[in-house]
Specification:
single chain; 549 residues; alpha/beta; Alkaline Phosphatase, subunit A; Gyrase A, domain 2; six-stranded mixed β-sheet; four-stranded antiparallel β-sheet; 16% strand
Length: 549
């Protein structure tokens, strides 16, 4: 499960892997022209947290299931890898842009930019006067539930799954006063999620070709998938997952949809219904008829919660349920088995509805994951505090750090390249020395500094998003004071090796492609399937991302 961790530590190998380049032979006709595939629709599914080994074990144990049906008429890629870092935001962007964080511009949903300013409500929630875009720049980028209208800064919870608006109408859910800001022509203006994306998306290209686009995900902040233009999505159906559970019996005040196995399945069911409605020729809420989108799909959270949540929550009637895996071989425990079965059943609903609407033969189905989850073997789990990072020289009052199972550290912009009066050394050098001095306590296996990050992404001294340091921790480390069993975000095999299957009834001979592949390759493959030019994607031209074999 962890062989890739060793491969990572060759910098040249990482550069090659992040580029996502493999040799792919496109099917040509007798005249050397690319064949037209003729697919009218692509259904893209992200089963967040699901590993390649999970797919293998599930299909072997349930050969009559829906995952098995997809593999029986499909191509399976057991050596598929998501982005590094393996967070949800860059992981999803990879699938729809073809870009790594180097091109996509986002490293985490909770990250940093040293050219922007705090949101208006950062101040007003504390009873402070809003200074606007003045003073020292540099702010946390809160591309998650914090952008919702009813986000509560005290409880870090949203009132209900609507986010304070209408699900399916994302701009009624997002609150500009909660967004970080930038100076534009002297005006202090909010930055919408899509403005952070630095490369175009398949949604923009497909919509520009006159075809429909729709997606369902866990936060309204996934408006970023609309691409830099902000115009790529006809509909984003985004019920807020980190909101008060108002649907499940037994949920108590303060319980969101991730605090019980039942709760997250109920939450995902809203998105399943939206996908079925799109197949039926309606919008996600089934209030308006429309044509079936050319590209549509959703992410599932059920498996991720089943991997992370240690025991049954208030909405679970069966209190014997426990999360995670039973052993190092990725045998799912009783709760995780329920979550896999839920996703398998949902896939069956999609297949059945596509057949009922005579769309099955013209639809390519792609199932992958934004990220994996680490560790698989709960015996490898080590919980630590990441508090020491904030005491590094140069962190100041305006630095930022995020740690799930790796740490990303940004120093205060005004101190990053300045000299530390206490040592007459640059703050950056002192910060590096401090972090390395605490490497044992922080379980750091390797610290990526400016030199290595410049090779992998861009120079953190010149790119306002690239972290100053990324700390690769020992396998199994989770930055938590709680009981969660696993996390994601890191570079290990358990974090990055995800399921990937491409399926269609037109694929008469199932096969397994053992080559190392990348979730970035999903994006050009979708365009290719819809007979659009993969080179329309900037990432194809700039990062060399290839269509899947």
């Amino acid at each position: 499960m962890r062989g890739f961790r060793d491969y990572f530590f060759s910098t040249a190998a990482v550069v090659a892997m992040l580029a996502g380049g493999i040799t792919v032979a496109r099917a040509d006709d007798d005249n050397g022209h690319s064949q037209r595939h003729g697919y009218k629709h692509v259904l893209l599914i992200s089963v967040d947290g699901m590993h390649a080994i999970d797919l293998k074990r599930w299909v072997e144990s349930r050969p009559g299931g829906n995952f098995a049906q997809l593999t029986n008429n499909g191509v399976v890629y057991p050596n598929a890898y998501t982005t590094a870092p393996s967070d949800s935001y860059p992981g999803m962007l990879a699938q729809v842009t073809g870009a790594t964080p180097q091109g996509g511009g986002l490293f985490y949903d909770d990250s940093y930019d040293w050219t922007e300013y705090h949101a208006k409500d950062f101040y007003t929630s504390q009873g402070l006067a809003d200074p606007g875009c003045v003073g020292a720049a540099g702010t946390e980028l809160t591309n998650f539930e914090a952008l919702d209208k009813t986000y509560n800064y005290s409880t870090a919870l949203v009132a209900d799954y609507t986010g304070g608006g209408t699900v399916g109408q994302v701009y009624t859910q997002l609150d500009p006063d909660h967004m970080q800001r930038k100076l534009v022509n002297g005006q202090c203006v909010p930055v919408y999620p899509h403005e952070y994306v630095r490369t175009n998306t398949i949604f923009e290209i497909i919509k520009a070709a006159g075809m429909g686009t729709a997606w369902s995900d866990k936060h309204p902040a996934y408006e970023n998938l609309a691409g830099p233009s902000g115009k790529g999505l006809d509909e984003l159906f985004a019920p807020e997952i980190n909101s008060q559970d108002t649907l499940d019996a037994g949920a108590q005040t303060g319980d969101d949809y991730t605090t019980s196995y039942t709760g997250v399945r109920t939450y995902d069911s809203m998105k399943v219904k939206a996908v079925l409605n799109w197949i039926d020729g309606y919008n996600g809420a089934r209030t308006q008829q429309q044509t079936v989108p050319a590209i549509f799909g959703m992410n599932f959270q059920a498996v991720s919660v089943g991997q992370k949540l240690a025991k049954a929550g208030n909405a679970d009637t069966d209190k014997s349920l426990v999360g995670g895996y039973a052993d190092a071989q990725a045998t799912p425990g009783n709760a995780l088995t329920l979550q896999f079965q839920f996703v398998d059943d949902a896939l069956g609903k999609f297949i059945s509805e596509l057949k009922a609407k005579n769309l099955y033969d013209s639809t390519l189905i792609i199932v992958s994951a934004k990220h994996g989850q680490s560790p698989i073997n709960v015996k490898d789990r080590v919980a630590i505090s990441d508090a020491a990072y904030s005491k590094a020289p140069g962190f100041g009052t305006n630095g930022f750090e995020i740690c799930d199972d790796e740490a990303l550290v940004w120093l205060s912009p005004e101190m990053q390249q300045a000299t530390n009066p206490a040592t007459e050394n640059p703050y950056y050098a002192d910060a590096k020395a401090y972090i390395l001095a605490h490497a044992a306590d922080l379980h750091i296996q390797k610290l990526l500094d400016r030199d290595e990050l410049t090779k992998l992404y861009e120079d953190p001294f010149h790119n306002s998003r690239v972290p100053d340091f990324i700390a690769i921790t020992d396998h199994g480390v989770i930055c938590t004071g709680g009981s969660k069993l696993a996390e994601h975000g890191g570079f290990s095999d358990d974090d990055r090796n995800v399921l990937l299957v491409v399926s269609s009834p037109r694929i008469k001979h199932a096969k397994v492609v053992e080559d190392t592949t990348f979730t970035t390759q999903i994006a050009p493959t979708i365009l290719d399937a819809l007979d659009l030019d993969p080179r329309s994607l900037q990432a194809v031209r700039e990062e060399g991302t290839q269509v899947l074999k």
